[in-house]
Amino acid sequence: MDQENEAAGNGHLGVDRHGDRELTISRMFRAPREAVYAAWRDPALFRRWWVPQSAHGIHLIGCDTQVRTGGRYRLDFATGDAEPIAFYGRYLDLIENQRIVWTNDEGEAGAISTVTFDELGDRTQVIDHELYPSTESLEEAFESSALALPEQLDHLGLLLCT
Question: What is the rounded CA–CA span in Å between residue 30 and residue 10?
Answer without folding.
Answer: 5
